[in-house]
Amino acid sequence: MRWTLITVTVTAGLSISLVACGTSAGTSAGATPSGSASASGSEPGAAPAGKIAWGACTDLRRPGGDSPATPAATMQCGKLAVPLDYGKPDGETLDLALIRIPATGPGQRIGSLVFNFGGPGASGVDTMAQAAKAFGTLGARYDLVSFDPRGVQRSRGVTCGTGAQMDSYVSLNTLPANAETRDKNEAAMREFAQLCEKDSGEVLPYVGTVNAAQDLDRMRVALGDAKLNYFGMSYGTQLGAVYATKFPKNVGRTVLDAPLDPSVTFYQRTMAQTKGFQQAYESFLKACVAEGCELGPDTATASSKIDRLMDRSVAAPLQVGDRLLTQGLASTAVAAALYSKLTWPFLENAVASALKGDGGALLYLADTYTGRKPDGSYSTEMSSFPAITCVDTAERPSEEELVRTEEAALKISPLFGNAGAGSMCSVWPVPGSDEARKVDATGSGPILVVAGKGDPATPYQWGPKLTEQLKTATLLTYEGEGHGSYLSGSRCVAGAVNAYLLEGKMPDSGASCPA
């Protein structure tokens, strides 16, 4: 999930750690490999067959869009046509963009393993192109597949105005937390929502997770798999849970890492995530001080320096080339670096540089997070997130509810507290539905949920809750920090996940992995 301090959004920040993988598997879960022979779409609820037009990958981008990525020789990109509106299956279509890296061996090929890396709004095509090596153990026996979900990037990505208008939006300050700031941000959100309707109004009603789950089943058939083997991270866990609810008989080996509890309200989500980011922030400060921190000899001093930087950035933002590092961008940069312990040293250096007058590193962090490219254009992440989030819920908070939420969040964290994604959804131009918030995978194959105790964006308590709601899931707990556990560097987690996906061995109930 993606967290931006204007709209409290949330995404999977991949911390790619190439580590050797041990094993910690328990009893067999009885999952069966999905071959292609029986993937005919004949099961109840199965999708009709479709064809993917595979070819060379020609437009891959690195994170931040700074330069084209060079595709591996075996990497393939393609498109699959799906209905824009599943209520009109023979009507207008939407082309989903996919990427595939064929299984490398050794060992018998199991089938395809489809990834969603989070967001909602992250490009699976670009992420897989960069992250494939991190999944090399799985890639020996699976074709690694990912995609840009509907409303994202190449799949009719939602756009909302020009690059300059996006610059203005993402630069909004969140401090001071008073009525003037609140009114200014509300007006900006209304303008942003209107731009989204103007530029992408024809696709906005159809970008929700329920439709994306139906897309997954079309992909399963087109890939030639009898069951969908799936690896979802962050928001990808909600997509996987909705798929398992709609198509339980088609569920293959499924891993949901950094789980989202789809049943939470905007208020509950905001409180949990504010606590999560504040906890991660405090852990960063403690780790910094323990190793000789540039920001001060103790956590109170380090924190006060960051507070002063934020306050100063409101009245006098730092000049970085022809741009300004506003308080809003500086806050986004701090939050972005909290997703993984691997970026904590970079955050320390970036803040120390900003305190000396150089905001370049913090601006780089913010740009990477918001999807701003060097040419001033943006990926669709900042636009896709509210489009999908607001279609996935019928909640439309009142002004009074938003103020109450913000006041409660600020008591938890003056730096990260605000009214959450409800602020944008309260002004969103299309209605939403609660269908994607109700999950129950009764009748599906076994599902592995992996939750981290120190995850800031998807707090740990959501793991047990999603596991309970699914009915067919087993929870694996990771005791460490960071958003997402498989790529955290934990051999224990990687070993357990690999044993399940490759051999069908589910960890024992109540299993945990140390930090």
UniProtKB/TrEMBL annotation:
Q: Which Pfam families match?
A: Abhydrolase_4
Q: What is this protein called?
A: Pimeloyl-ACP methyl ester carboxylesterase
Q: Which InterPro entries match?
A: AB_hydrolase_fold (IPR029058), Pept_S33_TAP-like_C (IPR013595), Serine_prot/Carboxylest_S33 (IPR051601)
Q: Where are the transmembrane segments?
A: none
- Cross-referenced Gene3D superfamilies: alpha/beta hydrolase
Q: Which residues form a coiled coil?
A: none
According to the record, the signal peptide region is 1-20
> What keywords would UniProt list here?
Hydrolase, Signal
Report the superkingdom from the record. Answer: Bacteria
Q: Which family does it belong to?
A: Belongs to the peptidase S33 family.
- Which residues belong to any copy of the Peptidase S33 tripeptidyl aminopeptidase-like C-terminal domain? 414-513
GO molecular function ontology, one term from the record:
hydrolase activity
